Amino acid sequence: MPLRAIAYASEATPGLSMDHVDDLSRAAARFNFEAGVTGVFLYDGTRFLQYIEGPEDSINVVYSRVLSATSHHEIVELGRGRVSRRAFPYWSMRLLPAEPEQLRAVANGDWTGLSRGGALYKLAAVVAPHLQAEHGDAPFAAVHPA
Predict the structure, then answer these.
(1) What are phi and psi of 123, to 5 degrees?
(2) Residue 146 — very low, low, confident or very high, per pLDDT cuts 50/70/90?
(3) Which of 56, 63, 65, 80 is deepest in the core (most CB within 10 A)?
């Protein structure tokens, strides 16, 4: 079954609490797990960047939920396309804190065709320390989408 991925950035709704963001992330993880979707969700306190991957039908359902969510606005699709393998197979959805500069660098990267060397590489670099913290001495190659 071919895998698809979508990346987007958005602005958080003003006044959105961290508790609400945590709740959103947990609900997304449960839904994505059932749908066979994996991904990562960066948050810098005012902006989101999310990357999701999985079967096309599931991605379409998850992304339609994203588009209708009231927790954010100014949604900008960064990239969409086919991927040969999952870049983040270990999380149905994982909320990670990011510095504004990190989120901006990933969002402004080259998402053309979900290039493995462009923005996805930058995203993997932001994720790597979190993966290492969770899984001990996991090498960067484990998250580097080659």
Answers:
(1) -65, -45
(2) very low
(3) 63
Using DSSP's 3-state secondary structure scheme, residue 133 falls into: helix
- CA dist 106 and 99 (Å) reads 11
Query: Whole-model pTM above 0.85?
Result: yes
* 134 compared with 105, residue with greater pLDDT: 105
Give me the phi and psi of 76, to 5 degrees please. Answer: -125, 115
For residue 34, give Cα distances in angstroms to 19, 28, 62: 23, 10, 11
State the Cα–Cα distance between residues 58 and 73, nearest whole angstrom.
22
The separation between CA 109 and the C-alpha centre of its own chain, rounded to angstroms, equals 14
Tens digits of residue pLDDT in 20-58: 999 999 999 999 999 999 999 999 999 999 999 999 999
Please report which helix (H) or strand (E) contains residue 3, including its range.
strand 3-12
Q: Provide the 3-class DSSP secondary structure of residue 47.
A: strand
